[in-house]
Amino acid sequence: MSWQEPVSPAPAEPRDAGRLPAGPPGRRSSFLGDLRVVWAEHDFRKLFSTRLISQTGDGLFTAGLGGYVFFNSTNFPNPASGAAAFAVLYLPYSLIGPFAGVFIDRWSRRQILVWAALLRSVFVALTAGLMASGRLGVPLYIAVLLVLGVNRFFLSALSAALPHVVAEHKLVMANSVSPTAGGIMAAVGGLAGLGVHIALHGGRGEYAATLLVAGCCYVAAGLVSATMPRGLLGPGEAVRDRQRGIARELVVVAVGLAAGARYIFSRRGPAAALAATGGNRIFYGILFLMSILLWRNYFYAGESANKALTHYAVLTLVVAVGYGASAFVTPVATRWLTKRAWIAVLLLTGAIVVGVFGPPFSQPTFLVLGFFLGLAGQGIAICTTTILQEEVADDYRGRAFSFYDMFFNALFVGGAGVSAAFMPTTAKSEPLMLAIAIGYALTALGYLALSRQASARR
C-alpha cells in the first residue's frame, strides 16, 4: 500500500495531557509559514537542498526496487519472498540508526554528507547492474543493504547538522519543515518512477535505469553539500576530543536503548500507547504484504506485470491521501477527544473497515480500506509520539524515541513475516482478513483498559 515512518513532531510543553498542544499564543504555525522563516538562513538553504535532492533519489530508488522485486514480468512474488524483502528494506534503517550517532559525533558531518552520497551512488550502480542482469536473490539484497545502510548515516547526519545552520529559536520550525518536505519529495520521486515504468511498459532495464537516475540524484546531493565549509556542520574539535573509544560508545548506545525500553514499559501511559502502535504496525504489515500479492497474483494474475503496477499505484496514492488527511483530522479530533480516546477510535475504525471492506477482496473496497488505514495509522503515530513527548522525562526522551523507532519497523516486518506462513500465494484468505479485524478490535479494547488504568493511577 504505502511506506510509513514514525512521526516525530517537535517537542511540546505538556499543557494538556489529554490533547495535542495548540501552539504558542498569537502564532498559528503552518508549513509554508515556517518554511519562509527558515529559508532566510543561507546555510539552511544548502542543507535543505541536499535533503530534497537526496530524498527525491530515495523515492526513485524505492520505486525501481519495489517494482522489480514485486512487479517483475519474469516472476511472481510469494509471501516468503515478500516478507524477506520487507526485512531487507526496513530493518537496517532502524537497527543502524541509533548506532550511527557514535560515528556522526566523531567525523565531520559535512564530509559524511559528501562521501555517503557518493558511496551510495556507487552501491546504487551495483544494484542496477544486478537488476539489469535479471538477478533476484542474495547478491541483490546485499547491494540493497549497502545502499540503505549508507543512507541511514546520511539522514542521521542531516538531522545532527541542522542546529548548526539555523538560529536556536528557529530550530523547532526547521525540524518540522525539513522531514516533511523530504517526505514529499520522496513521494514525488516514487510516483515519478512508477509513472515512467507504466508509460514505458517497464521491464528490468527500465527499473535499472530508474535506479541510475536515483544515483545521479545522490551525486548531485553530494555536490551541493560540498559547497558548505568543512567545519560548518560540526562536531567541534572539543566535542571530538572528549569522545570515548568507539567500542565503548557502541556499548553505551546499546545500554541506552535497553534503558529507554525499560523506562517506557515501566510507565503505563507510554507503554499502552506503544502497545497500540505495535498492534497497528503488525496488522498493517500483514495487509501491506497482502495488498502487493493480491494485485500481482490475484487481480492481475493472467495479465502483464505493468498493468498490475499501474493499478497498484492508484492504491498507493489513495493511502498517501489518507496519511495526509490524518494531519488535518487528528488535531481537530483531539480538540474534542483525548489522545487516548482518539487512538481507540482509530483502532476500532481499523477493525470495522478491515471486517467490512476486506473480505470481498475487490479493488474498489481495498481502496476504501487503504484510505482509512492510512488515516488511522498516521493518526495513531501522531498521538503516540505526542504522548511519549509529554510523559517521558527529558533525560530519557532520546533513548525512548530511539527504541520507538526500532520497535515501529521491527513489528511491521514481524507481522509480515509471521503471516507469510499462513498466507496463500494469491493472498486471498477470508479467515486471515477476519483475524486481522478481530486483532484490531482486541487491540482497541486492550488499549482502552490499559490507558484507563494509567489515568486512574495518575
Could you explain how this protein is built, in words?
The protein has 458 residues and is mainly alpha-helical. The chain folds into 2 domains: 35-236, MFS general substrate transporter like domains (Growth Hormone, Chain: A); 266-458, MFS general substrate transporter like domains (Growth Hormone, Chain: A). Helices cover 77% and strands 0% of the residues. It has helices at residues 31-39, 42-70, 79-104, 109-132, 138-161, 171-199, 204-225, 237-241, 246-265, 268-299, 305-336, 339-357, 363-391, 394-419, 430-457. Helix 1 crosses helix 6 and helix 3 (79-104) packs antiparallel against helix 14. The longest helix is centred in the middle third of the chain and has 32 residues, at 268-299. The two termini are 39 Å apart. 47% of the residues are buried.
Give the strand tally: 0
**Percent helix range:** over 70%
Q: Any idea of the CATH class of the largest domain?
A: Mainly Alpha
H-E string? HHHHHHHHHHHHHHH
* Residue runs with pLDDT of under 50 for 5 or more positions: 2-29
Radius of gyration from the CA trace? 22 Å
The CATH architecture of the largest domain comes to: Up-down Bundle
**Secondary structural class:** mainly alpha
Number of domains: 2
How many strands, what sense, and barrel or not for the largest sheet?
Answer: none
End-to-end C-alpha gap: 39 Å
Overall geometric form:
globular
CATH level-4 homologous superfamily of the largest domain = MFS general substrate transporter like domains
- Relative strand content: under 5%
Kindly identify the CATH topology of the largest domain.
Growth Hormone, Chain: A
What is the arithmetic mean of pLDDT? Answer: 81
